[in-house]
Design brief:
Length: 228
Amino acid sequence: MTQTTFDRILSGLKQLSSPPTVFFGGLGETLFHPLTIEWVAAAKALGCSVELITNGTTLNDKRSRQLIEAGLDVLWVSIDGSTPKSFVDVRLGADLPKVLANLAHFHKLRRGGHQPKPELGIAFVAMRRNIAELPDVLRIGRKIGANRFSVSNVMPYTTEMQDEMLYSRTLRDIAYMSSSWLPRLSLPKIDINETTQGAFFQAMNSGNMVDFAGNSLSSATDVCNFIE
């Protein structure tokens, strides 16, 4: 992104009735850009809540201090594997021990208090090759002080990556499950464990429109956030 583009974004933000959340992320590593931290500070100066996502490989002492000083509200870090081998399998060239060491140092640098800023979040891209490691990634995140966790589906940019999708059946079933003439099944909030999981998943796939703990699981899911 050029400075001219960002200046236009700032101009648009100033015209809003209330400051929104500004998120720095997309395709590419945010901290490779020489102006990212400066732009974070500029968005904060407008009163915006600012979040940023990074792969954590260049989150050294200097950058950590700069992000904290700029007023960043939430730092998201992509961790898609719980072991060095699985981590580098998804994040080519990345080193999990180094990333975790960077995050531990960042955690210590934050200002004290009941809710130190920036908050630390872990972002996990769910794929066939790594979904079994999600529980371990959550444990790792809690150990390094994360209090936010986000799991997203992989976006297959290549034909080969389609095999990593965990939602192909879901996409096929949406049209059927969203039909208004289907019976509606309302499930309460229950613990999903060895006792309940068999019955729960059978009920989920019973051909009904399903509400779980007051939330619909059968509609409003066939949306592409990028198109919207």
